[in-house]
Write a structure and sequence with these properties.
With 225 residues, this protein is of the alpha/beta class. It is built from 7 helices and 9 strands; from the N terminus they run E-H-E-E-E-H-E-H-E-E-H-H-E-H-E-H. It has a single domain (2-221), classed as Rossmann fold (3-Layer(aba) Sandwich), CATH 3.40.50.720. The protein is globular. It holds the Pfam family Epimerase. It is found in: Membrane. Its main location: membrane. InterPro entries: Epimerase_deHydtase, NAD(P)-bd_dom_sf.
Length: 225
Amino acid sequence: MRIIIFGATGMVGQGVLEACLRDEAVTDVLVVGRTPTGRDHPKLRELHHEDFTDFTAVQDQLGGYDACFYCLGTSAAGMKEPAYRVVSYDFPLAAARALLAASPDLAFCYVSGAGTDGTGKTRMMWARVKGETENALLELDQRSFMFRPAFIMPLPGTKAKTKSYVLLYRVVTPLYPLLRRIAPRYVTTSLQLGQAMIQATRSGAPRHVLETADINELAAARPAM
């Protein structure tokens, strides 16, 4: 499989990238981003791109891929809806349209989050915007999958870019083994998320909107690496 990753330098994306580099089924990985990953691997190629609303300049480099693992996102804390919508709706939709034009059979895997609401009835701005994004992607690409993880444990050594997340993980990380035991349906890792994306792309999934328990089941179905 040939995979494109967005957000590979983020807390979630680093684990997803690692899963792809480890998996023998993945032959090529293209990372599209503004910041280098700092990784060196025979499978890996990086494409620097600044404008995530317009991929015209790099369209000719997006063909021949099987899936996009879209891990790019931002916290809604302190953001007004118009600015949040640009990152959480406009960016992924622009990427999906460009990728599907170049690779019509591509599966678009989008990381939203637990609590995302596609009904439009929620009062939580982030949940409503991400729900609109999910709905638009599902309508655009019948092979797409929406991933709604709850708590994600990052790879060891990974640091979140958002200050509030840094503080959260500083408190919660020591409790991860306990959380794993008492609430396994709500806890996953960034590596498992990547494994689940690979499995969904290769073999399909029971549904197109996947919660944490679904993610862990798909990850467990991948051969040991």
